Amino acid sequence: MYDKSDPRASLAASKPASMLNQTGLVAEEQAATFYDSAPQLTDASGRTWLHRGHNFLVAYSLAEPGAEFARDAQEDEYCVLLPQNGAEILWNGETVQVPGNSIAFVPAGASRVTSPEGGELVRLFTTRSADLVALCGNARGYDVPRSHIPPLQDWPAPTGGWKVRHYSLDVAPEPGRFGRIFRCTTLMVNVLDPFDGPRDPSKMSPHHHDDFEQGSLALSGTFTHYLRWTWTSDMADWKDDKALEMGAPSMLVIPPPVIHTTRATGAGSNLLVDIFSPPREDFSAKPGWVLNADDYPIPA
User: Is residue 60 a contact partner of residue 48, using CB atoms and an 8 Å limit?
Assistant: First the structure.
């Protein structure tokens, strides 16, 4: 259910055999408030908080100047989000200079991300990176598998072969387009347009996803995430509604098929990044929504 002014109101309807008609799907949300919890890693590179979903994880770092973040045998493509300062990314013997306010995708294999100025640096991986999963603050949160989330399958290789690709986030809002969406073979990242809050409470967008999680990474501002577990015929699935007030930086993973909507409540700029793995088919089907669609084809 979207307000008529929300671009997502034009998305195709949910699958006919909705997960809402099944039972035994109840799962807890996975929340982490980085601003009032200890980092999972503290070393010469800085402080890093790690938090996972079913298929993806976030490594949020406050990097020291000159910090290096190496992946010696990365299994699949990952994402580097640079909200403010730039970085140097080394892969396959080539160093690429990525300016601040950018998003980059790094192929599998050995790579190194260097932050000359330090500051905020976000990396997004799939949970195939078992060494990083083990470090997550909620590493045990998925000991009971989510059987209704399909196994992760990569999307097709990028057009023109593998290389470090990066894109500016300096993209003006456009009527009918939702956020600033980029995808690679493993992830879809929507860097929502900064919102000067608070959000109008009469224009909310409660909705659910049948079979994939949504990660919501708050980089600035304050948000209230509203969650509602739909009643099924099994009372074991019933849970009370939740309203989670979270500042920045923080991360919330919303399980399917929980009905959810988020309200920016900070008086200043509120910046939220939505994360999905694999990329979403419905967003990809909307012409012009995925800003790097020419580089990353959709499955046949």
Answer: yes
In the three-class reduction of DSSP (H, G, I as helix; E, B as strand; rest coil), residue 10 is classed as helix
Peptide bond into 257 cis (omega under 30): yes
204-216 per-residue burial string, b: 16 or more CB within 10 A, e: under 16? bbebbbbebbbbb
The domain of 249 spans 7-150+161-284
Q: Is it the case that residue 186 has pLDDT exceeding 80?
A: yes
In a domain, 38, yes or no: yes
Instruction: Give the single-character DSSP code of 83.
Output: S
In a domain, 290, yes or no: no
Contacts of 161 (CB under 8 A, 6+ apart): none
Q: Return d(Cα 8, Cα 14) in angstroms, integer.
A: 12
pLDDT digits (tens, 9 = 90+) for 8-43: 877 866 554 455 567 777 789 999 999 999 999 999
Q: Are 193 and 238 in contact (CB under 8 A)?
A: no
Alpha helix (H) ranges present in 125-245? 130-133
- The arithmetic mean of pLDDT across residues 145-167, rounded, is 95
- Strands 188-191, 269-276: pairing is antiparallel
Query: Does residue 155 form part of some domain?
Result: no
Name the β-bridge partners of 90: 95, 112
> Considering its fold, how many domains does the chain have in total?
1
Assigned token pair, 113: 């991300």
8 A C-beta contact, residue 136 and residue 50? yes
CATH of the domain at 194: 2.60.120.10
| Averaged pLDDT score across all residues of the chain | 94
Tokens of 135: 């470090």
Question: Using CA atoms, how far apart are residues 68 and 46, in angstroms rounded to an integer?
Answer: 9
Residue 293 in any domain: the answer is no
